[in-house]
Design a protein that fits this description.
The complex is a heterodimer of chains A (278) and B (288). Chain A has 278 residues and is an all-alpha fold. Chain A has helices spanning 13-40, 44-52, 54-87, 93-99, 102-105, 108-119, 126-129, 140-165, 168-176, 181-210, 213-219, 229-238, 242-277. Chain A has a single domain (43-277), classed as MetI-like (MetI-like fold, Orthogonal Bundle), CATH 1.10.3720. With 288 residues, chain B is mainly alpha-helical. Chain B has 2 domains: 1-42; 46-287, MetI-like (MetI-like fold). In chain B, helix 9 packs antiparallel against helix 10 (183-212). Classes of the chains: A mainly alpha (278), B mainly alpha (288).
């Protein structure tokens, strides 16, 4: 034990190490390895049947497509909101700032039924969209709305600190050199915010891929049309197709791990890069 | 300072107004509207229907399971959070960064998969499926609901404590050892007072997630009414039965919890900023 750590007079190393590792293994590592083993230890034909049959392929397309659109919408509006919250003072700013966290705190099932009520044809928004021929609830558009709702805080809370860190002297220099406000935005501000914006975008995208509660009410869950990948896992479990559920689950898990790895490596790279410049 | 005030002058007013307008409209439509609609839908059939809906025996048993689940989850993850942060912040050992990443792992796992892993372990055809033959029911029973909830809230408390305790260092604890305090005394008298607001912060966030978790719990619960239904699952059942007003009445309780959580979060954040300030001992070190 003493060789494992640097000498310290504080007690409790053995106890906390043992407890932390056992609890981590029981709650997290063993269950996740059950998924890896169940998912991977099946004949390839069976695995690809579960993961690539037409119904599942349609679900992949829908899940990735809606998550991508929602994250792009959030990247655009999230940037504006983050900028507004940091740079401008106006009545209600603190309330607006607090509202950003609502999607974190509100249970997903509650968000799901509330969004469905608003966007179904008699709802507050649905009754305006209906005459325009736009069907929001029970369509892919509804899924995009739900994923935009749950993804927004990820972008805003990642970009906000980056806006705070912007050096006003840089913008000042740009305007002194004769750059218009838009040129300064394009050449000075956006490049400085880019790493945070990309990190927030990928995190929101990863979260949207696995979202379940807020989507299943508004999507309508029609196979081939509005059925997301998470729901397919639930359907397979209800049919006791554990291997099929594990196959889809494993692929989803791997994609979200890869995405979050990209974020972490990117952040590591950009801080190193920044230091080199400074 | 001069630059920033001049900067405010050069900032075109139209741009400022446009940004504020777009932000308010976007947040209002996307986030505020759903929150308001939960409460208006809940009271659509009047206050007495509302009260009947939330005091219904099935709603009550769902509330009971939600409270039990959150209670067990918080105690379990609190003990873990304290052990893990003590280990990582007070000692230096190989593999510390790997351990930090492993603790964060559940954040990267989506809700349905968080439930799925426990079905694969304890379900009828799972690794330990034979347990149910011996009368030990995990899946479609309370233990499964608790396990899935512990999994999804696993990093919450540890994640608040670890950075704070790392920043505070081990000087005060080392001083306490020199003065002859034992481990428990150090923890209670020295460490705990330094981290209490961050600890409460972590508990508040974990509690909101524990009481509101839907996907993971939905997979392991089996939706047995009066037995394995939590409040969010009860909302789903009422909604799927087209009992919309009752569904929103129960949902309004969860929305209220979310709003209280946000207020508590904001209040705690100002307290934690005080905790992060250098302690007296560190300031003395700076002076000397």
């Amino acid at each position: 034990m003493t060789r494992l750590r640097q000498h310290s007079v504080i007690p409790g190393f053995g106890l906390t190490l043992g407890y932390t590792l056992s609890y981590l293994s029981l709650i997290v590592l063993i269950p996740l390895s059950a998924l890896a083993v169940k998912g991977a230890a099946q004949p390839w034909a069976q695995f690809s049947e579960a993961v690539f049959d037409p119904r599942t392929l349609a679900a992949w397309r829908l899940t990735f497509g809606t998550a991508l659109i929602a994250s792009l919408i959030n990247a655009f509006f999230g940037l504006i909101v983050a900028w507004t919250l940091v740079r401008y003072d106006f009545p209600g700013r603190r309330i607006l700032d607090a509202l950003i966290d609502v999607p974190f705190a509100l249970p997903t099932a509650v968000s799901g039924i509330a969004l469905t009520a608003i966007y179904s044809q008699n709802g507050w928004m649905g009754r305006w969209l209906q005459p325009l021929g736009i069907k929001a609830a029970f369509s892919p558009l509804g899924i995009v709305i739900a994923l935009t709702f749950i993804g927004l805080p990820f972008i805003v809370r990642t970009v906000q600190p980056a806006v705070e860190d912007l050096d006003p002297a840089m913008e000042e220099a740009a305007s002194l050199l004769g750059a218009s406000r838009l040129t300064a935005l394009r050449r000075v501000i956006l490049p400085a915010l880019q790493p945070a914006l990309i990190a927030g975008f990928i995190t929101a995208f990863a979260r949207a891929l696995g979202e379940y509660g807020s989507v299943i009410f508004i999507s309508g869950n029609m196979p081939m049309k509005t059925e997301i990948a998470s729901l397919l896992i639930v359907t397979k479990l209800e049919q006791f197709d554990y291997a099929g559920a594990a196959a889809i689950g494993l692929l989803m898990l791997v994609s979200s791990f890869v995405l979050l790895l990209v974020v972490n490596v990117g952040q590591w790279w950009s801080t190193r890069h920044m230091r080199r410049i400074a | 300072m001069a630059i920033s005030s001049r900067h405010r002058h050069t900032e075109e007013t139209w741009m400022r107004n446009l940004f504020i307008g777009v932000s308010i409209a976007f947040i209002g439509l996307l986030i505020l509207l759903p929150v308001i609609s939960v409460f208006t839908e809940a009271f659509r059939k009047g206050i007495s229907f509302y009260l009947t809906s939330i005091s219904d025996p099935l709603a009550m048993s769902a509330l009971r399971l939600t409270l039990i689940t959150a209670g067990v989850t918080l105690v379990a993850n609190l003990i873990f959070g304290l052990a893990a942060s003590w280990l990582i912040a007070k000692f230096n050992f190989p593999g510390r960064n790997l351990l930090l990443s492993l603790i964060d792992l559940p954040f990267a796992v989506s809700p349905v998969i968080s439930g799925l892993v426990f079905v694969l372990l304890f379900g009828a055809r799972g690794w330990f499926g034979a347990l149910s033959n011996h009368g030990i029911q995990i899946i479609f029973a309370t233990p499964g609901v608790i396990l899935a909830t512990i999994f999804v809230t696993f990093p919450f408390i540890a994640r608040e404590l670890i950075p704070l305790m790392q920043e505070q260092g081990a000087d005060e604890e080392e001083a306490a050892v020199q003065l002859g305090a034992n481990g428990w005394q150090i923890f209670r008298r020295v460490t705990l007072p330094n981290i209490r607001w961050a600890l409460i912060y972590g508990v508040v966030l974990a509690n909101a997630r524990a009481m509101g978790e839907f996907g993971a719990v939905s997979v392991v619960s089996g939706h047995i009414r009066g037995r394995t239904n939590t409040l969010p699952l009860h909302v789903e059942i009422l909604y799927n039965e087209y009992n919309f007003s009752a569904a929103f009445a129960v949902a309004s309780l969860l929305a209220l919890l979310a709003l209280v959580t946000l207020v508590a979060k904001a209040a705690l954040e100002s307290r934690i900023r005080v905790e992060e300030r250098p302690t007296l001992m560190e300031m003395e070190q700076v002076e000397s």
